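#onboarding

Welcome to the new folks! Below is a worked example of what a typical request in this channel looks like: someone posts a single protein sequence, and someone else replies with the predicted structure as tokens. Don't worry about understanding the tokens yet, we'll cover that in week two.

Example request:
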Amino acid sequence: MRVTIIGTGYVGLVSGVCLAARGHQVTCVDTETSIVKGLNQAIPHIYEQGLDDLLREVVSSGRFKATNDLTFALADTDGALIAVGTPSEHGVIDLSYVLQVAREIGLFLKTSERFLPIVVKSTVIPGTTDTVLRREIETASGKTLGAFGLGMNPEFLREGVAVDNFMNPDRIVFGYEDEKTLAFQQALYASWLCDKVAVNSRTAELTKYVSNSLLAVQISAVNEMANFAAALGGIDILEVLKGVHLDKRLNPIVNGKRVEPELLTYLIPGCGFGGSCFPKDVQALQSQGAQLGLPMAMLNAVLSVNETQALEVVAILERELGNLDGRKCLVLGLAFKPDTDDVRESASLRIVAGLLDKGVGVSAHDPIATENFKRSMGTKAGAINFCKDWKAAVREAEIIIIATKWPEYAALEQCDVSGKTIFDARRLISVEKLANAHYLTIGRRITLD
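Example response:
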């Protein structure tokens, strides 16, 4: 099939490259000339595991190209996917990019006699596709639904493993307002063998939000329990969770063996969730709920716990070490999670800011996210020593914080950390390997007051 994808962010580019890899003819549209030029030379502007190689393959095969010209891309396509950004401000989703694309598609349809299925992949609040988006297209085109198609195909991609998630999904949700658009989506994903669900568009929209919100609930719940365990003392929350994880409702026994579902990884304490999805999606539901007159008490609590969780790192360091002013600290990991350069809502942003406020001399390292972190920190970035050789920086630091679970930081176990304070906020390394260091983490205070 010939597919047009509007937007080349994490969702749009990964979707386009993967659809091309499965044999479709894909044209990605972006307003940035430099991005379009780079993509046509098989140079991605974002980092995702496996994306570089796959992009080279599909560009070389002729199944993928990029353009600035939306009209050109729509003139010869079987359907369009909208995958532009929906940034959030104070918990409210900004639909301006989506609506701008809808208007441009509507103007194209005004002079075209072809039926065009239009499918939203951008994350939009429930009730967007079948109301405001539909009205925007109808107003600009002078046509009504039926002369064009409309649907919503939510993405369930995790940054860092987005390519694998797209190529090997656990489910695909087809939201649709007309049968032709459902048929378009079914044909588009015909080669994917997984569970597929067909629902109306607003059900598809809410499915994405509920999926992320329930995972966020688990993260904040286990972090609150971890803080409780540390306050009690004499407990390591991981020992508690060993018993919890063995509940067969969480970890079924099949043919005499534990399944060890990935869901359990969300029931490990840390310094909170970040990224482009969880914080924004939970805030969006919270905001929409308030507009509907619903208190959204659970989501309010989830966000409240997450907002302060990163600063637990600083609070614990103060409790254990006293005044932090003048101390030297190395922060390992700046991305919100490993295998991505995304620092949006990263716990490291709050940790580093909190350390600087306490007068700590901060050094920092990340394998790929340093430049994005500098931009996010703004003027405060000038107070941070960004190092390339983190092992050398270990020698100068009094405090070392593992803030992102990059596998390479496990090598800290082989470094000489005698007399240093190691704060393993992600439970990456074994306390037994750091016998000569002062080991701290979330949810663990073995001594009793």
